[in-house]
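quick q for whoever's on today - can somebody do inverse folding on this one?? i tried earlier but teh output was garbage lol. tokens:
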């Protein structure tokens, strides 16, 4: 259920309403819009359905949310949400933010070289894996906390925000100590304990769509994070498994406008994992921006042939620079900026 308040409702009336909702054993979530304040009520609807909440001062109407995802839905919030990173970056505004960097953090020198080049090209954030979810248990698994320290040092050195993946509930506090944005990978999209754990942080979260997940399932996973009080969620389309064997995955470009139709949360696209081949990253990136994506997550490596993971899909820094120049033209054509 959502409780829509009248414009100009006094704070004391809002507090009384929140107290009432909590007394019913329900969880209220407040969304402050430009025009109105909305209270989303989490819990069994039968408990609140017959409560005379319209009689409370400041209440305009009480409405059921038809979508199974409540806080994520457009019904709960009609305006686009803007997720801020380090107070200076915004996902969901006019500017399109580019997250770039290697699949895995290998050495400090490697990350320093990449950070300088991607920042010069216009990237806003650097990404790098310290804990790597690999298909084979014998593949490189990442540097762990040492990789996180490298990521934070390089982030501070170059003045560029840091993004990295967290895979385990036991590592959330550790990863949050070093990174500005926590990433939930495709294989953990429905790791509900992990989603609830990152929901208890106030860190921005990039939530990737699962390999075989529907958009609805992605939004339901995001609901777990929001229900814990963390509304700083950025959804990520990264390709899904289909019958095609030419690409690593199939980029569902329609997911971008579909998500924006169903949810107020910003959405970005990972063309690198969708393609699995660096030569396809450029056209998929441009298609994503044209479709309305609020950002991209692009893998860049100074020597992909020697990369410890996912070398075939990583761009050389010079090719990333070319991509950024071409993306500016696409962004301008759809009324955005890079």
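ok took a stab at it. sequence:
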């Amino acid at each position: 259920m959502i409780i829509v308040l009248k414009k100009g409702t006094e704070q004391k009336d809002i507090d009384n309403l929140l107290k009432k909702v909590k007394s019913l054993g329900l969880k209220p979530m407040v969304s402050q819009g430009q025009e109105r304040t909305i209270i989303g009520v989490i819990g069994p609807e039968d408990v609140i359905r017959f409560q005379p909440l319209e009689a409370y001062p400041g209440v305009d109407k009480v409405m059921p949310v038809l979508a199974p995802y409540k806080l994520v839905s457009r019904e709960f919030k009609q305006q686009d949400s803007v997720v801020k990173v380090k107070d200076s970056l915004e996902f969901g505004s006019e500017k399109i933010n580019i997250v770039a960097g290697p699949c895995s953090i290998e050495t400090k020198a490697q990350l320093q070289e990449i950070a300088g080049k991607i920042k010069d090209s216009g990237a806003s954030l650097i990404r790098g894996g310290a804990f790597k979810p690999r298909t084979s248990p014998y593949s490189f698994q990442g540097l762990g906390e040492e990789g996180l320290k490298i990521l934070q040092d390089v982030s501070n050195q170059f003045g560029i925000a840091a993004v990295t993946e967290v895979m385990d509930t036991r590592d959330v506090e550790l990863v949050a100590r070093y990174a500005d944005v926590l990433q939930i990978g495709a294989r953990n999209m429905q790791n509900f304990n992990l989603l609830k754990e990152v929901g208890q942080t106030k860190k921005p979260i990039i939530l990737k769509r699962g390999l075989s997940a529907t958009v609805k399932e992605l939004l339901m996973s995001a609901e777990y994070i929001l229900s814990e009080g963390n509304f700083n969620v950025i959804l990520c389309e990264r390709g899904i498994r289909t019958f095609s064997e030419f690409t690593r995955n199939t980029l569902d470009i329609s997911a971008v406008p579909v998500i924006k139709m169903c949810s107020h949360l910003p959405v970005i696209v990972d063309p690198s994992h969708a393609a699995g081949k660096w030569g396809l990253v450029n056209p998929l990136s441009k298609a994503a921006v044209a479709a309305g994506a609020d950002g991209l997550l692009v893998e860049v490596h100074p020597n992909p042939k020697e990369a410890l993971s996912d070398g075939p899909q990583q761009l050389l820094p010079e090719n990333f620079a070319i991509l950024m120049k071409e993306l500016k033209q696409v962004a301008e054509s759809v009324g955005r900026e890079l």
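fwiw The longest helix spans residues 317-333. also Residues 168 and 194 are 6 Å apart (CA to CA). so keep that in mind when u check it
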